[in-house]
Amino acid sequence: MKDFSENTYKELFECHHKKVFNISLNIVHSIEDAEDITQEVFIEVYHSISTFKEQSSVSTWLYRIAVNKSLDFLRSKKRKKRFAFFTQLFHPQTGEPLQEVSHFDHPGIALENKERTALLYNAIDKLSDNQKTAFILSQIESLPQKEIAGVMELSEKAIESLVQRAKGNLRQQLGKLYHERRI
Amino acid sequence: MQKEDWINSVLNSSADIKPAEPNAYLYHKLITRLGESNTPRIQSSFMTKWAIAIVMILLINITGIMAYTSFSKQKNETAAVKALSYELISSTAYSY
């Protein structure tokens, strides 16, 4: 290991891996993928700790890598889906279009809240990358605005506005959904 | 009012999400992966790139040579046909 011992690396992992895992989990919605991304984050840290400029805290740096890797993962997943075989979109026997149902089983959600949080996560998925990241980091991960600004490399004001816009868009989406559910 | 309450309840459900616990053996998995990713893969991909480059160069050369030979062969044949036709014309012109 360059510049730092194995013990320091383990300490760094112990201190931050849960937060890194949860940030990834809230973005990619799969425990296995979030664990993979967490490992990739710490592999990148291992290889590039010498390039860390200490302009931000280690946690900010780690969360930034986690967010970027999770968003990259989602993008590559979308790309793969786009190129997937066309007939896979339809039921082989009936020819009916198959609707993709998300089976995200977050271990931190109580049973009575499962339905509401599933609706919330579905709505979050439809937000732009920036709004999604800002909303997850501030409302779910409860990170301070200053740290979110560091993670996203934006000003605190920009983060505030992103969160407000995300909330507005979520309200709009949920409003539509409310009407659809009543019909 | 009912609609607003419902929207608020869904939005506020983010506050009830508790942090999830990752796999207890994640660190061990990470160390294994780090050990795997450290040496041989880079070397093999480097070799693969070289092998692909050499095969590509060979293919381009072979295709070029083949194209050139067939082209020059065709050129020779056309020249021979033309020469023959001129000879025929000249022979008819002078045979009386």
What integer is the average pLDDT of chain A? Answer: 85
Largest interface: A-B, 37 and 24 residues
- Describe the sheet with the most strands of chain A: none
> What is the alpha-carbon Rg of chain A in Å?
19 Å
Query: First CA to last CA of chain A: what distance?
Result: 61 Å
Strands of chain A, count: 0
Give a brief description.
By secondary structure, chain A is mainly α. Chain A is 68% helix and 0% strand. The relative contact order of chain A is 0.10.
Can you characterise this structure?
The complex is a heterodimer of chains A (about 180) and B (about 100). In chain A, about 70% of the residues lie in helices and about 0% in strands. The radius of gyration of chain A is 19 Å and the shape is globular. In chain A, helix 1 (about 5-30) packs across helix 3 (about 60-80), helix 3 crosses helix 6 (about 145-150) and helix 6 (about 145-150) packs across helix 7. Chain A has helices at about 5-30, 30-50, 60-80, 115-125, 130-140, 145-150, 155-180. The termini of chain A are far apart. The longest helix of chain A is centred in the last third of the chain and has 27 residues, at about 155-180. Chain A has seven helices and no strands. By secondary structure, chain A is mainly α. Chain B contains three helices and no strands. The longest helix of chain B is centred in the C-terminal third of the chain and has 55 residues, at about 40-95. Chain B is mainly alpha-helical and about 100 residues long. Helices cover about 80% and strands about 0% of the residues of chain B. Chain B is elongated, with a radius of gyration of 39 Å. The interface of A and B includes residues 10, 25 and 113 of A.
